[in-house]
């Protein structure tokens, strides 16, 4: 009987330690204390450095230190994924979220760079998954720049699309007619999505034409979205208590959908 009690006590102690770890990680990733904010700022800086490495990967892939940096980043991303999973209240629900699944795919391309060589261009999606977290937006909100969130997100979406497509074109068409390197792939992507169409670089075959069509359609859509956000008056995100409409004019007094009286705080208010 005493052995059973000892075993139960050890089990309780183990659970307490695990719960304490999860609580600590939850505070670090989602807290507002000075220590938590420093931790989040450090994570953001590391993430931005990793994204810069992903963008430069095609240019430095043949260097001697590439694999060392690649595996080091894989270790950092793996630790970050595990820590974020422990910090969430519902790990299984968190695991099914699209940004998390994308991060897992990115981790796989880092752990097996040779096997997943043709999918390396997906790594830049890390920039998109980063914007799905509060690490990017919380500092902007503290500086009163929350009203520019949609515009910043549109710029990031455009950049992610450009570099993902550039990586795909470089991987799928390098060595063929016109595409001799990463810069050529980037040049083709930008000229195609802006419909400039100089014609000095084209993708061969039916597949190449289909890829060009997709680039043009999605690229134009992203450019139009960005132009709308830049030239259209900014709106405030403030859910209406009655109907739930969340986008209003900065000086709105009543909800335009239901007429409910709004109390939108000024940017200087907490």
UniProtKB/TrEMBL annotation:
GO biological process: one example: action potential
Annotated InterPro entries: K_chnl_dom (IPR013099), K_chnl_volt-dep_EAG/ELK/ERG (IPR003938), VG_K_chnl (IPR028325)
PANTHER family: POTASSIUM VOLTAGE-GATED CHANNEL PROTEIN SHAB, VOLTAGE-GATED POTASSIUM CHANNEL
UniProt keyword terms in alphabetical order: Ion channel, Ion transport, Membrane, Transmembrane, Transmembrane helix, Transport
Pfam families: Ion_trans_2
Subcellular localization(s) per the UniProt record: Membrane
Protein known as: Potassium channel family protein
GO terms for MF: voltage-gated potassium channel activity
Residue ranges crossing the lipid bilayer per the database entry: 41-60, 66-87, 99-125, 152-173, 210-231
Main location: membrane
CC annotations in GO: voltage-gated potassium channel complex
Topology term for the membrane: Multi-pass membrane protein
Domain Potassium channel, residue spans: 160-230
